[in-house]
Amino acid sequence: IEFDFRYFIDYSFKKLKIRTDNISIRELENLYVKEELKISDIFPDVIDFLKNAKKKKKILIATTNNFSSLLVNMLLEKFYIKKYFNYIFISGDIGLRKPNVNFLNELSTKYKLSLNYTNTIIFGDSVNDDIKCGIRKKIKTCHVIRKKRDEILYVEKPNYCINNFNKVCLV
């Protein structure tokens, strides 16, 4: 189960016995987003991949396990990539996280999509979330490995592994 930013703050403050009289949850979320935006960056190959995919009329769906819709939308705007996505699906908005397969079911229901899983691929940097979700739904998966690791121990192996999107050939 996933929660949104408001729930997280309310729950945390209650647990810590902090009064919220003079604190706006929106103000707290804005502070969080401001700091995240300072440290966030995008890999240049992502933009080229998105441009190429859009040119080839691919349907692009951004899915994230983030609980702040504000942060996700601000990041997409900061890097000028929101225009490339047909749909944006944020776990905090629906109360589900990847790898729960109902996350993808909810995506299909919300946007009235009949996803053809044989022509779909999930690109993800998280083996435990993105890749596992795809494997559970029998969708092809591609693990995007950005950090140098000695060895990745896969419980469930992705179909493909890449370290940048320059190696992706869209047909």
Task: Describe the protein in words.
The chain is built from seven helices and five strands. By secondary structure, the protein is of the alpha/beta class. The chain has a three-stranded parallel sheet with strand order 3-4-5, covered by helices on one side. Helix 4 links the parallel strand 1 (61-64) and strand 2. Helix 1 (5-16) crosses helix 2 (25-39) and helix 2 runs parallel beside helix 4 (69-78). It starts with a helix and ends in a 9-residue tail after the last strand.
Kindly estimate the percentage of residues that lie in beta strands according to DSSP. Answer: 5-15%
Distance between the ends: 36 Å
Helix content: 40-55%
Count, helices = 7
Question: Keyphrases for this structure?
Answer:
alpha/beta, three-stranded parallel beta sheet, two-stranded parallel ribbon, globular
Summarize the structure.
This protein is of the alpha/beta class. The protein is 43% helix and 12% strand. Helix 2 packs parallel to helix 4 (69-78).
What order do the helices and strands come in, and which of them pair?
Layout: H1 5-16, H2 25-39, H3 44-55, E1 61-64, H4 69-78, E2 87-90, H5 91-94, H6 101-110, E3 121-124, H7 127-136, E4 140-144, E5 160-162
Parallel strand pairs: 1-2, 3-4, 4-5
Helix pairs in contact: 1-2, 2-4
